[in-house]
Design brief:
The chain is an alpha+beta fold. The chain has 2 domains: about 220 residues, Lambda Exonuclease, Chain A, CATH 3.90.320; about 220 residues, Lambda Exonuclease, Chain A, CATH 3.90.320. Helix content is about 35%, strand content about 20%. It is built from 16 helices and 13 strands. The strands form 2 sheets. Strands 2, 3, 4, 5, 6, 7 and 8 form a 7-stranded mixed β-sheet that branches. A 6-stranded mixed β-sheet has the order 1-13-12-11-10-9, sandwiched between helices. Helix 1 packs across helix 13, helix 6 packs across helix 7 and helix 15 crosses helix 16. The longest helix is centred in the first third of the chain and has 21 residues. The radius of gyration is 24 Å and the shape is globular.
Length: about 450
């Protein structure tokens, strides 16, 4: 069966890295290990810091997913998400943005984590006393600090430019003075939420901070009779002080974001889809990395895909870590599972790709994994493909061996240099597979659907 948009009998081009693949195996051992991890810790066992901040709301968001936010509220949420992404690109690099952490079977996603956790909050009004006015924000950051074993965190408030007001930025330092109290409360709420989800009974969960403030669950949640939520940041647990120097530094970084060089904006996906990247640069657009950590374990995902991502990250203790890699000005991070560079991809195909057809039917997967192996200096890479349209056997694990990784690196450097120099799209290799051009906003002018006329030298 041909992939979507590809006529039967057509001859797709292989991946650039196909010439360097010495073997492909279907790894049943790794697949069984991940399947067992999924079975042990299904999605309802996964508790996040966001869940713990308001556990009753987290409970109803899981058991009543049909209750969705209003269009106006959803628009505000999307605007906040977009600003977080732009902010992250402006003040840091990919390897520090949206870092995933785990503690006592609780997971978290820190906005920026270099030397200390930094959380960004967008708001319509600047709080006067954050501990009193925004205790959930302080508590969330205190939890992150506790998870990573540091007493210092940064809280950054951005007041949106609305109703003729200028935007405002405020930075605060948070000192966690009693991490043991924070940890104790985290574990207590984790157990309460787990028990509620297992029994489908929310009566023991504390009242949500959004009670009576337009929460979408207020008709079913029972917050009016629930016990109040006692925050873990009361008393001497934390101390907050202004950090004007950090606020000024962030202002300078955001102001200069438009002057960032092309090289800083480029990611590994731009080398996999170079013509698309060249067209995007002409428009001044930037694409998020497809396998960024925010996508690897998004707190908004549900179902088997989420469980599989969780199993990779958290299901096998100590098996998963990230390493930072670079090539010139390009910065990225590579996921290692059992010390093997690992890429997870999702496809809507209705049949699994046979090993012998992987380099032609999924050349973008093979190239991405080959590029990561070249950067990490690894001979073997692991590709996990989640088949969302297949009802039962949902995923496959492929192990690929690559030779001549230096030559792969040379091709990466060539593409990077062309993109940094602002080369025209036709100077770059076509994006593969060709059928994806049907869904590309730069087609048909990109010529990627006519890739047989412009083969990559040496491929």
């Amino acid at each position: 069966m041909a992939p979507p948009g590809v006529a039967e009998g057509s001859q797709p081009l292989p991946a650039y890295c196909a010439a360097f693949v010495t073997g492909i195996d279907a790894n049943r051992t790794a697949k069984d290990e991940l399947a067992a991890a999924v079975a042990r810790a299904g999605p309802r066992r996964r508790i996040s810091v966001t869940d713990l901040v308001n556990p009753r709301q987290a409970y109803f968001s899981r058991v009543r997913p049909e209750i969705q936010p209003s269009p106006d509220h959803a628009q505000v949420m999307m605007a906040g998400t977009g600003f977080h992404e732009a902010f992250g690109r402006a003040v840091s690099t990919e390897e520090f943005v949206e870092q995933l952490v785990e503690f006592e079977e609780i997971v978290g996603k820190i906005d920026v984590f270099e030397n200390a956790p930094l959380e960004l909050k967008t708001t319509g009004s600047m709080p006067a006393d954050v501990v009193a006015d925004r205790p959930s924000h302080v508590e969330q950051l205190a939890m992150y600090c506790t998870m990573v074993g540091t007493s210092l965190g940064h809280l950054l408030y951005y007041r949106r430019a609305e109703y003729g007001r200028a935007p405002q930025l405020r930075a605060l330092n948070l000192e966690v003075r009693d991490p043991s109290e924070v940890a104790r409360e985290m574990v207590r709420r984790r157990d309460l939420l787990r028990r509620a989800l297992e029994t489908r009974d929310a009566s023991a969960l504390p009242r949500c901070e959004w009670a009576g403030r337009g929460c979408r669950f207020e008709g079913v949640c029972g917050c009016d009779t629930a016990d109040p939520l006692v925050r873990a940041v009361a008393g001497g647990t934390v101390a907050v002080r202004e950090n004007p120097a950090l606020a000024e530094r962030v202002r300078e970084l955001v102001a200069s974001a438009g002057e960032v060089t092309r090289a800083r904006r480029l990611g590994l996906n731009d080398l996999v889809f170079p013509r698309q990247a060249a067209f995007r640069q002409r428009r001044g657009e930037v694409e998020d990395e497809e396998d960024s950590e925010s996508r690897m374990a998004s707190l908004q995902r549900r179902g088997f895909e989420e469980a599989l991502r969780d199993a990779i990250w958290y299901g096998v203790p100590g098996a998963c870590r990230r390493v930072r890699v670079s090539m010139g000005a390009l910065r990225a991070s590579v996921l290692l599972f059992r010390e093997v560079p690992t890429v997870l991809r999702t496809t809507g195909r209705r049949e699994m790709i046979e090993r012998g057809r992987l380099t032609t039917e999924a050349p973008h997967y093979v190239d991405r994994l080959g590029f990561e192996c070249a950067l990490a200096g690894a001979e073997k890479g692991r590709l996990i493909v989640y088949y969302s349209a297949i009802p039962d056997d949902k995923f496959m694990v492929y192990d690929l061996w690559y030779k001549d990784r230096d030559r792969i690196g040379e091709e990466m450097q060539r593409r990077l240099a062309l993109l940094e120099a602002g080369a025209s799209p036709e100077q770059l290799p076509p994006c593969q597979p060709g059928w994806m051009s049907r869904f590309c906003g730069f087609a048909p002018g990109c010529g990627c659907d006519r890739a047989e006329d412009s083969r990559v030298p040496g491929a």
